[in-house]
Design brief:
The chain is of the alpha+beta class. It has one domain: Gcn5-related N-acetyltransferase (GNAT) (Aminopeptidase, 3-Layer(aba) Sandwich), CATH 3.40.630. Strands 1-2-3-4-5 form a 5-stranded mixed sheet, with helices on both faces. A hairpin with a 7-residue loop joins strand 3 and strand 4. Helix 2 packs across helix 3 and helix 4 crosses helix 5. The longest helix is centred in the N-terminal third of the chain and has 19 residues. The chain is globular. The termini are far apart.
């Protein structure tokens, strides 16, 4: 091995280690003490509407309410909310899908965590709850665009 490639290899390893330690200018905070995941209901419409608007989605409050009622009436869909200290801090929508000649699978069609609560594990908690729902409904789970998202999120250690 050439001496300069060995030096680059050590430098690359040191950069990766430093990158893993970096917080990228964002302060690390501890996770909230009480996070609960539950199915959304119509009473959550205002909070879900606020989260949709924060993303720039053009959803009206009456559309959010209608969507919640639609999801509640279908057995193959579920909209989960993460509740932190009594307030909705994020949501995830998952649905059972089928196609000719395949087993049913679950697809995550939306995942939002409120900006101040990002990095605290709410998204991971929502994905884990969606995975449990998918195992009950479909016996298989995949993420939209990447089937590895649900598996990786559910196998990582919390924290």
């Amino acid at each position: 091995m050439r001496p300069w490639t060995r030096a680059l290899g050590r430098r690359h390893t040191a950069l990766r280690r430093d990158k893993a330690k970096a917080t990228f200018g964002m302060p690390r905070t501890t996770p909230p003490a009480a996070v609960s995941i539950r199915p959304a209901d119509v009473a959550d419409a205002d909070a879900l509407h606020r989260l949709c608007q924060a993303l720039g989605r053009d959803a009206q409050l009456h559309d959010v309410r209608a969507h919640l009622q639609e999801v509640a009436s279908e057995a193959g869909r579920c909209l989960l909310v993460a509740v932190v200290e009594g307030a909705v801090g994020g949501w995830l929508e998952v649905g059972a899908r089928t196609a000719l000649g395949t087993r049913p699978w679950a697809e995550v069609s939306g995942l939002v965590v409120d900006a101040p609560l990002r990095g605290l594990g709410l998204g991971r908690a929502l994905l884990l709850a969606a995975r449990r729902w998918a195992k009950e409904k479909c016996r298989f789970a995949s993420g939209r665009g990447s089937s590895e998202k649900l598996r990786r999120a559910s196998t990582r250690a919390p924290g």
